[in-house]
Every structure is written in C-alpha cells, then in structure tokens.
Specification:
The strands form 4 sheets. Strands 1, 3, 4, 5, 8, 11, 12 and 13 form an 8-stranded antiparallel β-sheet that branches. A two-stranded antiparallel sheet has the order 2-14. The chain has a two-stranded antiparallel ribbon with strand order 6-7. About 20% of the residues lie in helices and about 30% in strands. By secondary structure, it is of the alpha+beta class. The protein has 7 helices and 14 strands. The longest helix has 16 residues. A hairpin with a 2-residue loop joins strand 11 and strand 12.
C-alpha cells in the first residue's frame, strides 16, 4: 500500500519494472536502421543519413571512474553493413565530429574507448555546442552516475524534413540533438529529457530540459518502454529539475 501511494504521488518507478536492456528505445515510426551492439553502447545506425538514429548505453559509478586516456582515431564502424561516412566527409566541413556516446563515458576499457570513435557514434555538430553546453550535459551525466550508481542514457540527432549534407558521401546535418536520462535513487527511477538546436547556445543545461514525453514527440521513439504503461505516462510527462541538480 505504501509503495502504491508513492507511485501515485511522485510518479516513481520501481526497479523491478525493467529488464536488462531497458535503455533501448522502441521505434514508433518508419526509419532506416541497423542495430549494432558494441561493448559500451548500442547504436541504431541510419544508412540514409550516415549517422545514428540513436545511441543508448548504461553508465555505472564504476565505469565513470575509468582511467583509460582519451585517444582514438575516427573511423568507419566495421560492423556497419552497406554505406558509411568517412573521416574525409567531415574535413573542412565547418562541423565537428560530435560524439553521441562520449569518449569520456567509455574510458573504462581500451576497447570501449576505441569503439567510441566509430563514425556510427558521430554526428555533424556545431563546434560551440559540442564544446559548450552539450559537453556540460555530458559532465552532468557523469556526476549523476557517480552520485546514484548508474544512469541510462539515450541520445541522438533531431532531423528536419529537409537538411543539409556534408562530404562526398552526403552525411546528414541534424537540426538539433536530444538526450534522455534515467537514474536510480534508492531503488526508484526518475527520467528527464533535453533538446538542443544544432548551434552554439548559452545558458544552463536546465534551460533546455523537458519531459521525456516531449522528446518522444520530436523523435518518434518510445523511451524506457518497459515501464508499465500506467506509470510510464505519468513519469514521462513531467520532471523536477531539483531531482537532477549536480
């Protein structure tokens, strides 16, 4: 009875509601994709765009304390079947090679660090965004993992009806980027979403925070879908920024 009251009042999510792969989103609209599972993350790769639809991973408090230094060469993902971007597509394009799963989240092994530089994990990203507020959100996610023990992350591009491309292979340039995060606090999970335009924006990461439901409407993916429907609808239509202060 007590647990039921907590769920109704605070939209809290019991741990037992999830399976091991609860960070993997469900596709709600048609898109080209190849699902590739690497050591540290899973990617839905889009061969039309030559960038990911999404990248998903769990980050634990142990992994975030990894000591492998940032190093690696951007290169095509060897598991991609068919068309792929190359590093030359990004050269002199004016766009950064923006990590979705950050290299700093993959420093817990040499293999995960190497895989973070696969181009299936990369999007053309504004340099100011990549080194600014997007980086700030990546750092916040690591702080949450240190404090709470584990977080689940899904991130990727937001595409318009039409879009620019770069390079000989016509790599799609996103209009913006999303990130949704789920964390465990004393056996209960909380969710929050973020949406950024693909340009140099200022302010706090919380200026761009939103309910996960809003990100779902923008992207056409159902996040954290293993939550029972009655709880998921309530939990993902709101968020409390105080629950996510660093």
């Amino acid at each position: 009875m007590k647990k039921t009251a907590l769920i109704i009042l605070y939209f809290l999510i019991p741990v037992f509601a999830f399976a091991q792969a609860m960070e993997i989103p469900v596709r709600k609209k048609q898109c080209t994709e190849q699902i590739i599972t690497h050591t540290g993350y899973t990617v839905s790769y889009n061969q039309d765009w030559l960038i990911p639809n999404w990248v998903a991973y769990e980050l634990t408090s142990t992994e975030v304390e990894g000591t492998v230094p940032r190093r690696g060469a951007f290169c095509p993902d060897p598991d991609v079947k068919g068309r792929t971007a190359t590093t030359y597509d990004y050269s002199n394009s004016g766009w950064d090679r923006g990590h979705m799963a950050p290299a700093a989240d993959m420093k817990w092994s040499e293999r995960t660090m190497t895989e973070s530089f696969y181009l299936s994990n990369i999007c053309p990203q504004d340099r100011g965004l990549n080194g600014g507020i997007w980086l700030g959100l990546e750092e916040a996610v690591r702080d949450w993992a240190r404090a709470q023990g584990n977080v689940y992350v899904v991130c990727g591009p937001i595409m318009g009806e039409t879009f620019d491309t770069i390079g000989e292979n016509a790599v799609a340039v996103p209009d913006g980027f999303f990130k949704v995060v789920c964390k465990n606090v004393n056996g209960i999970y909380f969710t929050i979403g973020f949406i950024f335009p693909n340009r140099d924006v200022k302010g706090s990461i919380y200026d761009y925070a939103c309910p996960v439901d809003e990100v779902e409407k923008k992207t056409g993916f159902d996040f954290f879908s293993l939550i029972p429907d009655s709880i998921e609808k309530k939990a993902e239509t709101t968020y409390n920024a105080k629950d996510w202060r660093r």
